[in-house]
Amino acid sequence: xxxxxxxxxxxxxxxxxxxxxxxxxxxxxxxxxxxxxxxxxxxxxxxxxxxxxxxxxxxxxxxxxxxxxxxxxxxxxxxxxxxxxxxxx
Amino acid sequence: xxxxxxxxxxxxxxxxxxxxxxxxxxxxxxxxxxxxxxxxxxxxxxxxxxxxxxxxxxxxxxxxxxxxxxxxxxxxxxxxxxxxxxxxxxxxxxxxxxxxxxxxxxxxxxxxxxxxxxxxxxxxxxxxxxxxxxxxxxxxxxxxxxxxxxxxxxxxxxxxxxxxxxxxxxxxxxxxxxxxxxxxxxxxxxxxxx
Lengths: 89, 194
What we know:
The complex is a heterodimer. By secondary structure, chain A is mainly α. Chain A has helices at 2-11, 14-28, 31-46, 53-67, 70-87. By secondary structure, chain B is mainly α. The chains are: A mainly alpha, B mainly alpha.
């Protein structure tokens, strides 16, 4: 069931729309700026020349997940649930 | 719906959210990494003085970079073909006609040849290639009519004559039968005598 739902999510374009919505919300609430500031610290620490994508991923992802505001999470979940109600039964 | 299904769905929703958030984070990582490697990540941390050097210019006569943007308006160029001095803004059209290339130059040449032939037999086609004359799709006589049509096109709108005026009389690309009354014209006279 999970695979078919995921497939539908992509096929109907809803996944892309949700991604855009999330990105917009995160920028709006300042999450992106916060994370960029954190990135700057990491880069200054590791050195501009030597920083790799993996370095950033390791530093950014856990913190990023934790810092997503509840309101944003709520809104996204609302939309996801609506989609599931329509397409998962 | 049973509560088991509900909790399954809820779990699925949470999972989807988690995927989306991870996607956003990774997107940010890639953007930042690229910015670092391309050298534009720390661009907004420049010192005040350098920032002032690149501020937007807002003076009359200058563009936002501070460059003068209409200095070529009054310059003159020398045509390599006829060695005349031409204004810069008229240079490109002049060159088109002077070199005999471009969309209109062959039409103008044709017209000159025709009017040249009408007034005197020695036409201006001596100056340019005669190829243009031989390339006509229709005969010389029809071209005169086509020329006539062109001159009365302007006073009225070009779409004055609808398609069924030409439908029965269409022979060449630009021919018009002058002696054939169009259905439209007939209607005008007879339909509204009141």
